[in-house]
Design a protein that fits this description.
The protein is built from 13 helices and 5 strands. By secondary structure, it is mainly α. It comes from Chionoecetes opilio (Atlantic snow crab).
Length: about 350
């Protein structure tokens, strides 16, 4: 028989030793043996006076560690950087798996989209609301998500990322992290001061986590959103709904602006919001349809630069004009010799 893990949090070393003594007494009373090898102490924001400090439990000294994994998240005295790198690597692993799955399934669009949103994203997002993510780091996750979208849609490297997001109908990682962080902040502000999560929040009020939260507020265009209205006084359910609405509006605004700046998405701009489409299948025709809608077909007007003696002229018809997507889809005149 064995008991589950126990995590003890303390604000100072003396209090921690008192709590360890209580654990030792409990173990003695209930005949529970404590593992010396698996017991460790992680000091966060310590000073020089803690350098030689030792802690005892069950008559044994507990070794100190520089990092510790708890509930799937690596913690160290600098934060959660190791977990961030681990999640980025996990996202890339998922793309590799989805590439294999797509080759073996009847409808790669639905299968890849379902696995990515239903399994991959939750495994990547677990606990991310407690971390500080730079724009560069979240962009790395976004690049990986776009790779998954290209697999599902059969998209080549010329396709704009706005088109991938538009037809996959999913949020960006920047939006997901923003929602998670703001919802976590709303919970902490409503939490009793005696809770440890609330204490950690108070300690970091002017540190990186809070500064990152303020940056997210600025990004949504609602700086100070937590000071008034439902964000401060409403129920958590109402607050969560409001956060989702504001972040999604900002994400949609950036998506529309990105489309307006891409000449290849001229035909695609009539789409008013990202949503999944039902007319894609795993056939080559579905891949060609997607590329045609985004003007990313490998036509001569695009590919001639990389061909020896390449020409823009259409070789399929007798008109002698450049082979563009519009020409290929709407104008091509083929001469059939009989």
């Amino acid at each position: 028989m064995y008991a589950d893990d126990v995590v003890i949090l303390s604000e100072n070393h003396n209090e921690l030793q008192e709590m360890l003594n209580a654990v030792t007494e409990y173990g003695r009373d209930f005949n529970v043996r404590l593992s010396k090898e698996k017991s460790q102490v992680l000091v966060v924001n310590g000073d020089d006076s803690d350098a030689d400090r030792i802690w005892m439990v069950g008559g044994n000294e507990i070794k100190r560690t520089k990092e510790y994994k708890y509930l799937g998240i690596w913690l160290d005295d600098k934060g959660c950087e190791k977990t961030q790198h681990e999640r980025i690597a996990r996202a890339n692993q998922w793309v590799g798996r989805l590439g294999s799955v797509a080759r073996c399934r009847a409808n790669k669009y639905e299968v890849v989209r379902g696995l990515w949103k239903g399994v991959a994203v939750p495994s990547i997002m677990h606990g991310l609301e407690t971390m500080v993510w730079s724009r560069k780091e979240s962009d790395r996750l976004e690049v990986t998500q776009n790779k998954a979208g290209r697999i599902a849609l059969g998209a080549n490297r010329y396709v704009a990322v706005e088109a991938i997001r538009g037809d996959m109908g999913w949020s960006t990682f920047r939006e997901r992290i923003a929602k998670a962080g703001l919802r976590n902040r709303a919970r902490l502000q409503r939490m009793d001061d005696s809770k440890w999560a609330s204490k950690v929040w108070d300690w970091n009020m002017y540190e990186k986590w809070m500064k990152d939260s303020v940056k997210v507020e600025k990004w949504t265009g609602e700086l100070g959103m937590f000071m008034t209205g439902v964000m401060r006084h409403g129920s958590m359910a109402v607050c969560k709904k409001e956060i989702n609405r504001r972040v999604e509006e900002k994400g949609k605004e950036e998506w529309l602006r990105g489309m307006s700046e891409k000449s290849t998405l001229e035909w695609y701009r009539k789409k008013d919001q990202p949503r999944n489409e039902r007319f894609y299948d795993s056939g080559y025709g579905g891949d060609l349809l997607f590329r045609a809608r985004k003007k990313s077909l490998e036509v001569n007007s695009r590919m001639y630069r990389w061909k020896n003696g390449g020409s823009k002229v259409c070789v399929m018809c007798v008109t002698g004009v450049d082979e563009t997507v519009e020409h290929l889809m709407l104008v091509v005149v083929v001469v059939v010799e009989g």
